[in-house]
Structures are given as structure tokens and as C-alpha cells.
Write a structure and sequence with these properties.
4-stranded antiparallel β-sheet; alpha+beta; 5 helices; Alpha-Beta Plaits; 11 strands; Ribosomal Protein S5, domain 2
């Protein structure tokens, strides 16, 4: 599916009735990365009243690697509205966190929903993105005589070699774009005269 990811983090500050909403949007390839970004913002702003957040560590619309938190704001006024914005956008593998400094005037539940939503929308408008490429793992073995040729083909198909092992054959653990998996396997099989072995995954 078409999906874009943050190219680099962005930070946008909005103010509503003297309350300061500082929203950061960043790349979150995993849930661990998302929580690390949130923890870093908490450490940078120990005096903030709230650090509310939402993330989707996957493509928009998926439901397995996402989360949100109101962080002490009235239930449903911050995290869920932020997550809703992310789910209806075209940016995936993304975390958004809003640091709020209270300005002395209560905004009410509706006001909070609007403030957190608008702050995130503003940050997404300022965000630069890059196309997402689905990456897959591939394990394969080639004869020793074809190692240099195999390495060349792996390189020309922009695959990353994670590990190399040497047994009766040369064993590669690769990470590559999903759409080059079949072309690479065909090229390697041809170079190995049919002696290519592919293992799971």
C-alpha cells in the first residue's frame, strides 16, 4: 500500500489561552522506538503538566502496533484524538507527542480535543516525508565458487547483508525491499547454475 514515513523529526508549538502545546512528530519503526521518543521528551520537559502521545508503528489503518495516552488529561481528550488524526493520514511508522504547559485557563474537554488535534495537524503539515518501502528477510545459501558474484548481485539489488556464515556453502541473511526479492533470487539462481538454496523466511 502507499504509505509515507517521517523523513526527520519536526516540532511545532501552538498556544491556546496561554496554554502551550509543543508537538513533536518522528519516525517510529517499532513500538520500542515510539516509547523511546516519548521517554526522551519527558526527560527534556520534566516541568510539563502533561506529555500526551499516540503512535502507529506500522502502516496507517493497522491495529496491532499502536497506542495512545492522555497522560492525566481528562479521558479521551488528548491521546485518542491524536491517534485518530494519525489513523486518517497517509503517514505510517510514526509517533506524535505533545508536551503541554498549562496557561492558567481551563479549556474544557471540547477545547482540549480541539487543541491537541490542531497542534498535531499543524505538526503533520510541517512534516517532511519519504516513501515507505516494505522490507523482508531472506536466508539463502550459494556455492563457494559463486560468493563474489552473489555479493555483487546482492549489492546491485540494494539488499543489506545482515550476517554471513560459512559451512558447506556460503550462507547469507539478507534484508531487502519486498519488490526485489524475486528478481534477486532469479539472478542468483542463474549465477549459481541452479545451486541456490533458499531457507525460511
Amino acid at each position: 500500500m502507499n504509505c509515507r514515513i517521517p523523513a526527520e523529526p519536526v516540532e511545532v508549538v501552538t498556544e491556546v489561552k496561554r496554554s502551550r502545546f509543543q508537538t513533536t512528530v518522528a519516525h517510529a519503526p517499532t513500538t520500542t522506538a515510539a516509547h523511546a521518543t516519548i521517554a526522551s521528551l519527558r526527560a527534556q520537559h520534566p516541568d510539563a503538566n502533561h506529555v500526551c502521545w499516540a503512535f502507529i508503528a506500522g502502516v496507517p489503518g493497522q491495529t496491532t502496533a499502536l497506542g495512545c495516552s492522555d497522560d492525566g488529561e481528562p479521558s479521551g481528550t488528548a491521546g485518542k484524538p491524536m491517534l485518530n488524526v494519525l489513523q486518517h493520514g497517509d503517514v505510517g511508522f510514526v509517533v506524535a507527542a505533545t508536551v503541554r504547559y498549562f496557561g492558567g485557563t481551563k479549556l474544557g474537554t471540547g477545547g482540549l480535543v480541539r487543541a491537541y488535534t490542531q497542534s498535531l495537524v499543524a505538526a503533520l503539515d510541517a512534516l517532511t516525508t519519504t516513501p515507505w518501502r516494505e522490507r523482508v528477510a531472506l536466508k539463502l545459501s550459494v556455492p563457494y565458487a559463486t560468493e563474489s558474484t552473489a555479493r555483487h548481485l546482492i549489492d546491485t539489488h540494494a539488499a543489506d547483508i545482515e550476517t554471513v556464515g560459512y559451512s558447506d556453502t556460503v550462507d547469507f541473511d539478507l534484508l531487502l525491499d519486498a519488490d526485489v526479492r524475486e528478481p534477486l533470487m532469479a539472478a542468483l539462481n542463474n549465477a549459481c547454475a541452479g545451486q541456490l538454496s533458499v531457507h525460511s523466511p
